[in-house]
Predict the structure.
Amino acid sequence: MCGIAGWVDSGGGARKQPVVRMCESLAHRGPDGEGVWTDPRGLACLGHRRLAIIDLSDAARQPMSNEDLDLWLVFNGEIYNFRKLREDLATAGHRFHSRTDSEVILHGYEEWGLDGLLPRLNGMFAFALWSSRSRQLHLVRDRLGIKPLYVAELAHGSLIFASEAKAILAHGGIPASLDSDGLQSYLAYGYVPHEQSIFHGLKKLRPGHFLSWRDGRTEVRRWWELEYEPKDTLESRADLVESVRERIADAVRARMVADVPVGSFLSGGLDSSTVTANAVHHAAKGFDTFCVGFDSGSQADLEYSRLVSGRLGTRHHVTTVTAATVRSLLPALASVLDEPLYDPSALATWLLAGFARQHVTAALSGTGGDEVFAGYGWFASQVRYARRGRRFGPAWGPIAAASRLLIAGLRRAPLGMRAPGALKVVGRSQPERSFPVRGFFDSWEQRRLLRGAFGQVPNGSHLWLHERTWRPDWPLVPAILNHDLNAFLPDNCLVLLDRTTMAHSLEARVPLLDHRWRRSSVCPGRSSHREMARKPCSRRPLMAWFPARCSNGRRKVSPRRSRRGFGKASWTGCTGNSSEAPWWTMGSSHHPSWDS
């Protein structure tokens, strides 16, 4: 796990010093070493900050080259199947000079090319690969966007890239100016999605894509896309539960490989408990778990995390934070995130990461469980709205017309008086139904907020993201999940996790986002909205691991536990009043709760 940066210039103007500045701004991502390599012709300069996880020796330092110094690599992430790939490449005649997972990318590219290498990689990664012979740069991002990668095209065929936005700005090639499209998207969604950025001229490489640069020209291609398998291959729900259990165990086992201590975040919720239970099974010795609580509000997370830890026999570490401490840290958190992110759980995750880093260098997280197993409340809401629409049939048209009249009347009221999300979905298409359940400000509200801010009234659609990610040919439940796996997960949840953990030089690993999950077997298309809310496919495998005393007698980790999550807990810890949660100050009528 590291930070990467670089500069390519078709005119031979790539220089070392700007890349050194970029790497210095990423020092928190890699405190264990740094390196910068410059092409003798000035065509490329690559920089790297190292957080040593696998192979702690100098042989694993980057930038890393192949034997003939043609290929140069800077890599951020982990390849979990690198040992198998290494065996295959060694059999084909390749010689390795380190024990690190990074080196398999160099030799894999030599053996299979980019198109053959990428499907073989199981992991989280963002890397840059420069070929001196072909004068070509490849920038690659993992399937689900676990690791970040920003790019900016400069004048005269130059391109710069880095792991964080602050490093791009440290180059000096683009000013730190506000991007109006990025701001509008933030107001609509609470995060800046897809390739957009809050900074003008700076973009993100989207998950599952790679960018190729040569002689000043760039091409972006998608190398992976989630596929829906319409038929369940399993004979029964029991087979489904056992399959999920086996996959979770395999994913966690793969992410336990490290040459440094590995622990786990443990809130006592379903996702973090599932991951931790498997990790303890595969740990060679005592295993460390971590939880953060606040002195204001409920202590549910601490209570349930202690129950689960006691059952699993982990070395459990708990810290409690005061409201005064939380408020004093908010300005620093804004700097950590770089871009606006309207997710209060960033605060708790940041505090938890700093606490865990005192004991371990890598930590497992349950992030992604709600996206894979349909755990968010809005999934069930959208299924319910869709089925109500079919039930009302011909009467839906008049009901929709009446709701639009009522919404128009509310819009003449003060800004804080908004139409309920349920009212907005009446008679709308599925992408339109998705927005009010999840959204913040629609196009009309944005124009009212930003009138004159950019010299003209913003006119962007608040539905563009839903329209780009919606799959009308898929069943409803998989289509809803696909939207979140392509938008909310990479641009909100994973941005939050990466920035807050790497700010403390802590590597976060996410077993529940192993790309080998298949949509049809993880959450069948026939699931009802009530069934989705209970996450049966992940809850049932977990029930066997915990006795009744951990579950109020009902063999669930926390069946009576309200879904507060890190978001509400963070804000309660800051204000001492859960009714003042920040989504109300934003004017949103609905907001998710998170389960760590």
Observations:
- The longest helix spans residues 237-254.
- The radius of gyration is 24 Å.
- Confidence is low (pLDDT under 50) at residues 414-419, 524-533, 551-564, 577-596.
- The CA atoms of residues 329 and 347 lie 9 Å apart.
